[in-house]
Give the backbone structure.
Amino acid sequence: MAGKAKIIGTQIFGLALLAIILGLVPPALGFNIYYVLLATIALSVTIMVAAWNIIGGYAGQLDLAAPVYFVIGSFVTTHLLVFYHVIPWIGILVGALAAVALAMVLGYPTFRFGVKEVWYALLTAALVVIMQRIAWFIMTSYYFPILGSNEVYISQYIPEDANPWLYLYFPMNYTIYYYIFLALLVFTVWINLKIKRSKLGYYLAAIREDELAAEALGIDVRRYKLYALMIYAAILGVAGGFHIMMIGILAYKNFDPWLGIVIAVMGIVGGLGSIEGAVMSGLILRTIEEWLRSSFGAVIPGIHYLIYGIIIIIVAILKPEGLAAIINYVKKKLGLIQYG
Amino acid sequence: MMARDIILKVDNVVKRFGGLIAVNKFSMEVRRGEILGLIGPNGAGKTTLFNCITGVYKPEEGEVIFMNERITGLPPHVIIRKGIARTWQKVRPFKKMTALEAVTVGVLLRKSNVDEATKKAKELLEFVGLPKEKFYKLGTELTLVEHKLIDLARALGTEPKLLLLDEVAAGLRPHEMDRLAKVLVKVRDELGITLIVVEHVMRFVMGMSERIVVMHEGRKIAEGTPEEVASNPRVIEAYLGTKPT
């Protein structure tokens, strides 16, 4: 069908454009280590928002537990490296599987007993705190006696003659990490586009719009919510594994409830169910936050959060549909979509 | 022989809400290929009965038998797979999806390929008579009668053998009702789908049903052709109250 070919063509073009534009960022920053590090963190956050789009945007579940699956990936990768000398590539894979397994164990009863809307949000928010306490317990009672520290400094456990690619260890060279995260972001966006055009995507949208009507059309609501949660967890697990190899310090505080809220807020500001909106929101808001922190954070401590909050309120008032509404308007003008 | 012509059998179904008995030992049989009207005053338990058949509620007593198979208490997504679809009294549109996407969701139950399902959804929307220019409108941009047509097409997409219509005419203007009634008769005649029409609007249901079951306070009080039912004193009493003496 011509229509389908056109859609796929537009998608490939969009992904290529995203890769090229973001690929030009490190040279534009003059490969300055600090700026490239900040840009890499912005990409990492954007990957989380893009993954959140699957559970939050497509399936409509207000999930605040992004740090749980992300840091599980970090934790498993670090643990396997430090205690069993497993290279991060395998650690990341195992970490992602662990994140998916956790999503299944948590998601099955949650959806089985119909926990949704604000209660789902509360439950997932609490989950981050619970995981943080568990991590604190493990790190103080198990890691501390062996490693002599409550935190893990990964560079100490990289063999002297290690192949940097094998160990994902590029000290003071964030440009490589930047491009790894860019590849991961493009992959995540591609998965989003793939889901949206599939049976899964249609079913998740129906669940988001009206669960009862969706179920009456033969959709096993619990099963499809669980699928969305597992895909979300898998992406976060992989991203968390790469992230910890870049940051190099594992601490129990990585399970950060605030981050879970920030990811959801970015997803909502982007426009629920719009992957373009999610990516733009992640990149723009994270950059603004960083800029506000470096410009005003030292003038009056905490003022950057105030300004950041005001920006979000303004967006919510002016464009409740999120950035997606603006993107759809542009797309419509270009004749890429028939509605919106 | 008789059993094969009965597509749905509701046998002594009871559903309570706390102290209130919404459906009280209700039984009825639905014949393959007929349009059965189910009427009754407000609060008679018609919608509750629907929810017991489609699996939204689990009846406390009694059985629901569909094509000689016991389906009592199965979840909605399983029951629809067996071939019982429904539409909603209060429309439940997918607001942020287009008309075409909403119907595609229904078709995907039997066809997993999105492109094929979309093609089928277009045919269904044409069948129920939604104008082509509305196919790409979002749920928020459509009128009530359009929502009712989409709701119907969505249910037809699941390829049902029995379709339960919960007050489809509610809120429609007379000429819109006529348009919908024509579509429903077409659904039965051309697609061979058995219909149960729950209705308040007597003119609508009397005009198209071959048989009518009257429900009052959770029980069946009458059954027969529209003429028989309309002249039944118990039905008149249920609707209008007793004559002052």
